[in-house]
Design brief:
With 524 residues, the chain is of the alpha/beta class. Helix content is 40%, strand content 16%. The protein is built from 18 helices and 15 strands. It has an 8-stranded mixed beta sheet with strand order 3-4-5-2-6-7-1-8, covered by helices on one side. The relative contact order is 0.09.
């Protein structure tokens, strides 16, 4: 199921694109003669079954070249039913790129609302794009279905009456109207006879350029509040904003923050277990895509997790390198745990990195870096990983976990229970030392990164935990920010300090590393 607006992107001329759309839709929806009873049964099912409606009337979207039909994902059906169920629906879809959000919001859903009985649920649709040209292009995809989709016309009658996407609006024979509007344009007075807009969709208004202009975002939010939404007036008045969450301070992020009362459905390409949320895509497809466009872009475009450099640790400073086959050949090995004790949505991360050191260089071997996981699960993972290591590596590896007095009482029985279950001695020591200012400690690592003395295990280049920890590092800024997590960099710095102490105790002469003094050259 592809987005109609992307099917003809090689055709720049709007009229040529229209002709191609007409050919595609009319050839794919040629209707066959049938009995009247079959038609009525199909209509009755289509009124209540969204997936059936989509796959029956839009085969040119749902069938591949081999004729295989791709059904709607559960989230498509859930979202459509939520909009249909509430005549005064107001909400947002934050769906990953390639999820067909525009196709559903702009085409399938409004045409489904239009056929509802006994009360039609769409009379005037206002389709808002980032500019007038984009909005008109989106409207083109709607008109071609109403004018040339023979399957839809066969069951619901001739549609187009007058107007055209080229004029920015058109009407149907049953009295419905469809209007295109560019972001920021005045919608006041938009009505057809006594009908005012009752279905408004804002499609992909957020972009990389807009996120850099907070003043413009404020203007657009005010425009939506004061001009757009009030164009609707009583009875049926649905408003839908669709985008992927591409910026932490973008337009959608602002609306989410200001409207916790609005319906909100976030759908990432992969679920928490790393499986696709829509079976149209495979796990392998997304793994290849992540490698092709790199982690930062993948998280922003496909995981609703916008990645923005904090300006201190840069993505370009992350160097991948194959490690020594025998980890025991490194000068020192440390695992350091920074535990989270909450499983709430905004909880801190549990981060347990393993670092190696040779000379003045640091090597990140492995990391457990997860949110909303219990200490029991983290400790179990730690024991699993540790006991799989060769004995000579274990004898060299030092393991610590940060814990104040209260945390020690919580962790001690968890660790001891895991050790008894495995029949091994407890190898994790509590670190209760005072560390000083966290920002100063994390910022002190910049010297090593800038000098190119930090490397990441190339074998972990696609590991979700490793990538998530890098995300925290490159997003870190001194003083933090709303929603910023720093558990990964904090655990990394703590591990580095332990490596330094081990090196000094061994009597090995160290190459100066900056002595972990704060680097102020970036002015952060």
């Amino acid at each position: 199921m592809a987005s109609g607006s992307k099917l003809f992107k090689k055709t720049k001329d709007p009229r040529q694109r229209w002709d191609a759309l007409v050919l595609r839709v009319s050839s794919a929806t040629a209707a066959e003669r049938e009995q009247l009873g079959e038609k009525e049964a199909r209509i009755q099912r289509a009124l209540v079954d969204y997936d059936y409606f989509v796959t029956t009337y839009f085969p040119h979207y749902t069938k591949d070249k081999l004729g295989k039909t791709t059904s709607c994902a559960p989230f498509h059906v859930q979202a459509a039913n939520a909009v249909k169920a509430d005549p005064e629906f107001t909400g947002m879809w934050a769906w990953f790129r390639g999820s067909a959000k525009s196709t559903h919001a702009d085409i399938f859903l409004p045409l489904w609302l239009k056929i509802q009985r006994p009360i039609r649920q769409l009379n005037v649709m206002l389709l808002i794009g980032k500019n007038a040209k984009t909005a008109t292009r989106l409207l083109q995809d709607v008109q071609v279905e109403l004018q040339h989709n023979e399957l839809y016309i066969r069951d619901f009658g001739p549609q187009l009456k007058e107007g055209s996407w080229e004029q920015g609006e058109f009407q149907t024979q049953d009295g419905c109207a469809f209007v295109a509007l560019g972001m920021g344009q005045p919608p006041r007075g938009t009505r057809f006879g006594a009908q005012r807009p009752d279905y408004i969709v804002c499609d992909d208004l957020d972009d990389d350029k807009l996120k850099k202009n907070q003043g413009r975002i404020t203007e657009i939010v005010e425009w939506l509040h004061r001009a757009v939404i009030p164009t609707m007036d009583g009875g049926i008045m649905r408003f839908l904003f669709v985008n992927n969450l591409i910026a932490k301070k973008g337009l959608m992020a602002r609306l989410i923050a200001e409207h916790p009362d609005w319906y909100f459905l976030r759908v990432d390409a992969l679920d928490r277990n790393g499986n696709p949320t829509w079976d149209r895509h495979t796990k392998e497809h997304f793994e290849r895509l992540r490698k092709k466009i790199k982690h930062k872009a993948f998280e922003s475009e496909y995981m609703n997790n916008p990645q923005e450099d904090g300006g201190v640790f840069l993505l370009e400073q992350i160097k991948w390198k194959s490690l020594l086959s025998d980890l025991a050949q490194y000068d020192a090995l440390v695992m350091y745990g920074d535990m989270s004790y909450s499983t709430s949505e905004k909880a801190d991360y549990t981060s347990i990195p393993m670092w190696a050191k040779k000379g003045h260089q640091f090597f990140k071997v492995k990391v457990y870096h997860r949110q909303r996981e219990t200490p029991s699960k983290a400790v179990k993972w730690w024991f699993d990983f540790y006991l799989k290591l060769p004995m000579k590596v274990r004898s060299k590896l030092k393991c610590y976990v940060e814990a104040n007095a209260t945390q020690k009482e919580l962790l001690r029985p968890i660790i001891n229970r895991e050790a008894r279950k495995r029949g091994v001695a407890n190898f994790i020591k509590f670190d209760t030392s005072k560390k000083g200012d966290k920002d100063d400690r994390i910022g002190s690592m910049t010297t090593q990164y800038e000098n190119g003395d930090v490397f990441y295990n190339a074998a972990e280049q696609s590991d979700p935990d490793m990538l998530a920890s890098i995300e925290q590092l490159t997003g870190w800024t001194e003083g933090g920010g709303q929603g910023m997590h720093d558990d990964g960099p904090d655990a990394d710095e703590s591990a580095w300090r332990k490596l330094e102490k081990i090196g000094k105790r061994s009597g090995r002469e160290e190459v100066p590393t900056g002595s972990f003094t704060k680097n102020t050259s970036r002015g952060f």
